[in-house]
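Sorry to interrupt, but I need a hand with the structure work. Could you add the entry underneath, on a fresh line?
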Amino acid sequence: MDAVYAQPGAGVRFDWGLAGASELGRVCAALVVVDVLSFTTAVDVAVGRGMRVHPFPWSEQAVAYASRVGAVAAVGRTEVSPERPWSLSPAALRRAPGTPELVLPSPNGSAICAAASATGLPVVAACLRNARAVARWLLHQGYGTARAPVGVVAAGERWPDETLRPGVEDLLGAASVLDGLAGVRGGLSVEAAVALAALNSVPDVAAAVRGCVSGRELAARGFADDVEIAVERNASTVVPLLRGGVFSPA
């Protein structure tokens, strides 16, 4: 029975959160992680500026880890200062000075990527900005067949009790990648096809992200610029690939 959770037989599969990534990571040849607000959008911006990004779970250990790997550690959005200008905010990363190595912790997308790195699978960071480029790269690499399936994982957010809260922004980001993979020979799993159908039913993706819970929450906290960067659909050709625990261009 356990095998059914891995959506067997499909070339492209879809799931949610850390548990979904763990399940798909057992059987897929590559994983795509989507955390639109804001980890994977921040990775796209940082890698596009020439930074190497180290994913790390959200914890007080990030600074010590950064010291060990010769990197700087990003701080929380509200903790940005002239001395520590790097954070999970894509807008802040656009303004900050370049740095060769950046540890970018987050409770969702970064934690998922850090865990997935241990599997040795190729892991790609996708968002609305680079969804088309990611899909093209996956197809060029030959992923999406029954023998080399790809798993697309929407990170989601957390409720106060730490359980998964599915997010509209990550569903639409993941579905944007799925849209570019819809014609693969291995076909989409039912889960992936339903996610894609959600995208096709939304006439204005940017407005949906602005108006969803996560988008409104960020705007209310004063980070509407992060939402605006996140909804720049297909503005980036960067494909951040996790190799040796670090995101760099594929």
Summary: The first strand starts at residue 12 and ends at 16. The first helix runs from residue 17 to 25. The CA atoms of residues 141 and 148 lie 10 Å apart.
